[in-house]
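User: Please predict structures.

Assistant: First:
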Amino acid sequence: MVKGAKRFALQHFRTGTTISPKFANYHTFTDEEFRGAQKIMERYVGECVIH
């Protein structure tokens, strides 16, 4: 579904106040995990950015 997109953004999850309290204690992926996902996504999109 994203193949061929000009840009794809990966975004860190911020803990704290959420719409659903069950997500309040979740943690984001590590920088290394994000870079791995970015490398994979760059095969399918023009640019993959991490925010």
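Second:
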Amino acid sequence: MYSAKDIKQLKYDIFESRQYDYSIRPSKNFSEPIEIYIKFCVLGINDIDEVNQRFVTSGKLDIEWKDDYLDWNITEYNNISSLSVQHYSVWRPDIALNNGHSSTGNLHLSEFDIIVFNTGLIKWTPYSIFETKCEINTMYFPFDKQFCEVEFVLWTASAIGSRFRKAEVEVSTLHVRGEWKFVNVDASIINNGSLHKTVFKFNLQRKPGKVILEFVLPAVIISLMDLMTFCIPCGSGEKISFTTTIFLALAVYSTVLTSMLPATSSNCILGIYLKAQMVIEACIAIVAALQVRLFHCKNKDKLPKWMLRFCQWSLNHKRKRKIHACDKRVSILSLSSLTVDAKGTCPDDSKLDSLIKMVKEMQQHCSCTGNCCGCHKKEPIAFYAALTKHTTITGSRTIVYDKIYTNLVQAYDSSNGKFRAPVNGLYYFACTQISASGKLHVILMKNNSKLGKGYSVERGETGSVIGTVQLEEGDVVTVHHNPYTGSQQLHGAEYSTFTGYLITQL
């Protein structure tokens, strides 16, 4: 077991007797550079400052190299295999932080000792907090990913005879603060001429939950509240103040977002969205102001020239379009522009009411297939037929009404007594019969299914079947004799009739 005396003797021999000079590169063969091994043990990611574009990490560096003048035989020094010396006692590679945020240069890690092994291996393990530059890309904020680098370089004269041989990184004890999630880190070495550099590249992803809940969601809700502007009556006095409040809220959110992001970063999609919403809100405020102005103007008031020109332009634009009178809704603002005269006088209430009434009548009675000049009414569907001769009926026989008074669209066939629905819709039917011999039973049928029954008790008595039926195109409606009542006689001479018509199309 060695003692302090052995350590003193060892230090004296390797530093004093050998006349060790820490200013000279410790290599016996100057034609070959000293190879340096570096390992970055990351203990924490302390901060990512988006505004100042600063990346702050803490950790230690395991730096190793070979010193040809600091080896000894352990048997001569009571098996001493390693020795701790102060940093200024031996030659050290001039390693500097290449992309420091506030300064670039030596790490200034003078308070940490160096371990010297009997084989000449030197191990230096300094600890520090590293503040480096990091270009923040916030285009997809808050769903962004950032790539930040920590670069170490061999500075000044050390680069002539030294180079990095191997670089590693350890993150087993890594702790990430704040709203960021660690993804991975890569280590790479660049030995190009006089440039010898080691780069540790960190891949980080933002946790968007807090930003979405506290910033994005309220901004979207405020944007959706724009639509409520058109639900506020003009006479309430709150229409303009509501739109102004929404605009100011969006402006505040835009200012807050700007303060969170660096001034030199690319355009943020969230920021573009807020600016676009502000433009939309400004347009809504202009429309609301026009609505309130038109609402409160009197019949003898004159509109400003710019408002008059806008109304005239709107009128001319509408005239050039093909308007379907039944499918288009005319707004109050458009109706007002139709009645503004050349002097800028506000619309008269009686004229406005009559114009609205006229448009509603057009919507109810006109069915258009082209422009308004090509309007035509839908062709109605109706028929009315009568029986001309006395008819004896037996079994389930179809009663054929042979004389036609009305038969629009030819839906009723007088040769077989069948009505065939030309379109889907709700129809009205009625059949009236007079018995010529006694009791008489008839049935109204739809596709051979019973719809209703009619009954006459004695000769000369009238019976009828009346009802509304929903039909699809191609359905058949007929009048049949009840097969269970035997042979019966139906009065002709146009006393027995069958009629029907389309109520509404479905």
